[in-house]
Design goal:
This protein is an alpha+beta fold and about 325 residues long. Among the domains are: about 115-140 and about 170-230, Threonyl-tRNA Synthetase, Chain A, domain 2, CATH 3.30.980.40; about 245-285 and about 295-310, no CATH class. The protein has helices at about 5-65, 65-105, 105-135, 195-200, 205-210, 245-250, 295-305, 305-310; strands at about 140-145, 150-155, 160-165, 170, 175-180, 185-190, 215-220, 225-230, 260-265, 270-275. The strands form 4 sheets. Strands 5-6-8-7 form a 4-stranded antiparallel beta sheet. A two-stranded antiparallel ribbon has the order 1-4. It has a two-stranded antiparallel ribbon with strand order 2-3. Helix 1 runs parallel beside helix 2 and helix 2 packs across helix 3 (about 105-135). The chain is elongated, with a radius of gyration of 38 Å. The termini are far apart.
Amino acid sequence: MMDAHTIGILLVGGAGLAVLVWVLHKIGKVLIAMFEALATIAVVFLALWAAVKTLVWLARQILTHWRTSITALAVAVWWQCWGWPSLALTLTVMTTALAVWRCVDLVSFDAWVGQWLRAWWQRWTIYAPKLPGWLHACGLSVTDITTPTVVSLNVLGRPRLRRAHHAASARIPKVVGVRSGPSWDQVRVRLVPGQKPEDFDEAARALASARAVTRCQVRELTPNVVSIDFQRRDLLADPVDCPDLEELASVPGASVDLRRVWAGRNEYGQDWQVALTGSASHCLTAGASGAGKNSVMWCPLVSIAPAIRDGLVRVSGIDPKG
C-alpha cells in the first residue's frame, strides 16, 4: 500500500502536469492565432501586391497602346449598353463609308485613316508576334550564357568533360511603334544594352529575307532607338510613258498651264503635277546614281514643250558636276 508521502507526490505531480498541459494549450491557442493572423496578413499583402502589379501593367498597356485600348473599351461599352446588333450595324456602315472614301479620294483616305489602320494591322499581325523571332534569328539579341565546365574522373582514370547547361535568357529589342505607308513599313525598335545601330545595318539584308521583301534599310533615330524600314512593294518600279510628241505638236503654247504641269505618277498611281510658276516653283531632286533623277527634270519639260517651242518659256540648266 502507498503511504501518504507517495500519494502526496502523485497528487502534486498530477496537478503540475495538469497545469503544464493547460499552459501548453493556452500557448498553442496563442500560437495558432498568431499564425492565422500572419497567414491572413500574408495573403492580404500578396493579393494587394498582385492587384497593384496588375493595375500598373494595365496602366502601362493603356498608355502604350492607347488607341487599341480606347477602341476595345468603346466596343465593350457599346455591346453592354446597346447590344451587338446595333454594334454590327454601326461597324458595317463605317466600313462601307471608309470603302467609298477610299475609292473616291485615295490620297486623303490614306493620309487620314488608311495609314493608321494599316499600321495597326501590320503591328499586331506581323511585327509584334514575328519580329522578335526574326531579330533573334538574325543575331540581333543579347543572350546571357553561363556554361561552366566540370571535369570528372571515372573508374578507368580517363577524364571526361561535362558542361552544365543553363537556360539562356535572350533579351530582344522591343517594338515601340509602327508606321505604314503605301509601300514602306517603318518599325521603331528600342535596342537592349550591348547593341549598337551598326549591328542592324549589317543585318539589313537578313531582315529583308526574313520579312520576304526586296529592300530593308535601317535609320538611327536616337542612340538607343532605330527604325527598320521594310519596302513591301515598289509602286514606282514600272516606267511611265511621256506625253506623245506628235500630239503636243498641235497644242498651242499659250494653252499650257504652268501652274499644273504633268510630271508623272505618284506612289498612289495618280497624276503628279508640279507648279513651275509662283512661290512653289522650286524643285529639288536628290538621289543616288541610277535612281532616275533625270525623269523628274525631263517629264515637266516634255509637258511644256509647246510653250518652249513658241518662245513663252526659256529653259536654262547647269550641271555642277560638269
